[in-house]
Write a structure and sequence with these properties.
The protein is α/β, with parallel strands linked by helices. The protein has helices spanning 6-24, 30-45, 48-71, 74-81, 88-95, 99-102, 110-116, 132-136, 140-166, 179-184, 190-196, 198-212, 226-231, 254-262, 276-279, 319-332, 354-367, 374-383, and strands spanning 86-87, 121-124, 127-129, 236-237, 240-241, 243-248, 269-274, 289-293, 307-311, 339-344, 346-347, 372-373, 386-392, 400-406. The chain contains 18 helices and 14 strands.
């Protein structure tokens, strides 16, 4: 059952060739466009039955098989084996798992499905080798992303239809009573639940580094003029350097590390503020990055910094909670000098990329919150006594940088 006429397929392929040429020239957005066209081609070529098969069991099986491989450290063992790979019997001895579970000739099991889904490579009959992707899954920032999504996020998605049906399809607004609580049988908000489950909190924090890997960040050349907008005009106070940037709720400090690496000559102190349980998980930070314990729902202790920075913080909270966070920052800011930088998705009015719409669904599933449009951001910031100076955007699907100041 062909869903696309031959000329339509040709047009789509030609568009992909064009995007591929732009990719070789490192043109911004070319990779994302090529991915979008590739997904579109798959969707158009599949029959409805094949789409159901992919969504209903091929992809869930890939997810489950990947988690099993992580639990058994299969990806590490394949990486260690190099190009010669490992046979099923060798994997059985190394993992103490039944060979029939790993691969049996008459049906797909863990290894065969991972190979069919291009996560590992099938070198010969029942012999498998690593790939670039499977090697990546040995790194905590990617490995823990699978574990976190499989055990924490996925149940919320699976329970979403039943939750919405039980609530007469009303938009959830209570961060302590949404799809996440329904799926995990809890009455506490998502982040409180994470704090009660240290292993998943560690998975989450590690994955935040993996989520950003390969994405264009605001410190990259051509995105946001860091030196001009932040470095220029930095004030000195007494004999100490002024505070250049306060990363509020900055997790493991990845963004400050990136800023420091790209702009080593920037003057001013760099401060990371986080909760105690997150700070405990930080192994090391570069010299010059200071760490302090802080709850962003309380008064901001650092007054008059050049910039206050929030990365993927406000999308975790409803408008009322976000307004509390912003109000504390507004009180600490110095008029005409301090800036607020918000690194978040800005949902376009039309043609939003799947990476944006799926993140919006993730926010619904975990926190009963949402990603915001430009008008949402303007309204929220104005309610906290600020105004948007400019929204700096790279390409569709990339987090924007919203620069704001006191109104």
């Amino acid at each position: 059952m062909a869903l696309l006429a031959g000329e339509d397929v040709s047009a789509l392929l030609n568009s992909m060739v064009s995007s591929a040429k732009h990719l070789t020239k490192d043109q911004p957005g070319a990779r994302e466009q090529l991915l979008s066209r590739a997904y579109e081609l798959i969707t158009q070529l599949e029959t409805p039955s094949e789409s159901i098969q992919r969504m209903g069991w091929a992809e869930p099986a890939r997810f489950a098989a990947s988690q099993i491989a992580i639990d058994l450290k299969i990806f590490e063992k394949l990486k260690e084996a190099g190009g010669q790979g490992l046979s099923v019997s060798e994997l059985e001895k190394a993992t103490k798992a039944d060979a029939a579970l790993l691969a049996i000739p008459e049906s797909a099991r863990t290894m065969k499905h991972l190979a069919s889904m291009n996560i590992v490579s099938e070198k010969s009959i029942d012999v498998f080798t690593s790939t670039t992707l499977s090697n990546a899954f040995t790194e905590p920032k990617f490995r823990d992303g699978i574990t976190y999504c499989f055990n924490v996020a996925a149940p919320s998605f699976h329970g979403m239809p039943a939750y919405l049906k039980a609530t007469a399809y009303k938009q959830p607004h209570d961060i302590a009573d949404g799809p996440f609580q329904y799926a995990h049988n809890t009455k506490v908000p998502f982040f409180m639940w994470l704090g009660e489950h240290p292993q998943y909190l560690e998975n989450f924090n590690n994955y935040m580094a993996g989520y950003r890997a390969g994405k264009v960040g605001w410190t990259q050349e051509g995105f946001y003029p860091v030196s001009e907008r932040l470095g220029a005009g930095l004030k000195k106070k007494d004999d100490d350097d002024a505070v250049l940037l306060v990363d509020v709720g900055g997790g493991m400090g990845h963004d400050l590390e990136d800023l420091k690496a790209r702009f080593p000559d920037l003057e001013g102190r760099l401060l990371l503020q986080e909760r105690r349980e997150v700070i405990r998980q930080i192994a090391t930070l570069s010299p010059g990055i200071e760490v302090t314990e802080h709850d962003f729902f309380t008064a901001q202790p650092v007054k008059g910094a050049r910039a206050y920075y929030l990365h993927s913080v406000l999308h975790d909270w409803d408008d009322a909670s976000s307004r509390r966070i912003l109000t504390h920052l507004a009180i600490a800011m110095e008029r005409g000098y301090s800036r607020l930088l918000i690194n978040e998705l800005v949902v376009p009015d039309k043609g939003a990329a799947w990476s944006v719409t799926s993140m919006d669904w993730l926010m619904l599933a975990l926190g009963a919150v949402r990603e915001r449009t430009e008008s949402d951001w303007r309204e929220l910031l104005e309610s906290a006594g600020m105004r948007i100076v400019k929204i700096w955007t790279w390409e569709q699907g990339t987090e924007s940088l919203i620069e704001a100041e006191l109104a």
